[in-house]
Specification:
Blueprint lengths: L1 E3 L3 E4 L7 E2 L7 E4 L1 E3 L10 E8 L2 E7 L9 E3 L7 E9 L3
Antiparallel strand pairs: 1-2, 3-9, 4-9, 5-8, 6-7, 6-9
Length: about 90
Amino acid sequence: MYSGPDQTGTMLFRTYGDLATTSSSQFVNGVQSVFNNGTPCNQCDHVDFLFWVPNHSWSICLHYNPGPGSYKQNFQNFAGGAIGKSVRWRGEC
């Protein structure tokens, strides 16, 4: 998770495992972009991201780089970015 669009700015969060929390103190604030830099792995190379953006939660599943499919996402259309709430590694989206 990055503070700028297209994986620029500061890296706000990086993980090799899941992030699952209900505590707002552990949320990642100001997320402008995300990128799945994982490698091929049976049942563990795609990532579900759960974000809060103004007025609703939003979930996306990203394939590992370079695809096929989406492996990155920008959130700069939301004032202040998105709030990262959870990350879960999984199999195919």
